[in-house]
Amino acid sequence: MLDTPHITQSTAQQAAVIHLTIPRDQIRTAMGPAIQEVIDTVAAQGIGPAGPVFSHHLSMQPGTFDFEVGVPVASPVMPTGRVRPGELRAAKVARTVLQGNYDKLPDGWGQFMAWLDKEGLPKAPDLWEVYVKGPSLDPDPSTWRTELNQPLLG
């Protein structure tokens, strides 16, 4: 289920990220280890995480995910392994929250994109998800909350 979408201004957040370019069908096997690597790195450096995990999709291709997985940090991360400094940029965004299991994300994004098109809102090529509440906080998928953010042009 999607909350009512709205337009807001996001603020820039410094982050620690891992950049991945993978086939779509590898998302479930690649994302978990990348998240753990980022969390372990920022925890070892004593700089976070300073907020929930996110994935920032840099471009949308039919068969490939080109994205960064990361967490906000209190100060810049020292590059370690695949972890690099990054940022979620400040942007005017359309935002909604998906309530429920991650397997509902494709349908949720489809509904959200249909709303954006209906409203005539010009979309930037990137988008991001913030995993506000997930399995690390509660194993019950009905309590999970994923914030969907679509930057807008203009």
Automatic annotation (TrEMBL):
Sequence ranges assigned to domain AraC effector-binding in this UniProt record: 3-153
Superkingdom of the organism of origin = Bacteria
Name recorded for this polypeptide? GyrI-like domain-containing protein
Checking InterPro entries in the record gives: AraC_E-bd, GyrI-like, Reg_factor_effector_dom_sf
Organism listed in the record: Massilia polaris
> Which Pfam family, just one, is annotated for this protein?
GyrI-like
Task: Quote the Gene3D superfamilies the UniProt record gives.
Answer: Regulatory factor, effector binding domain
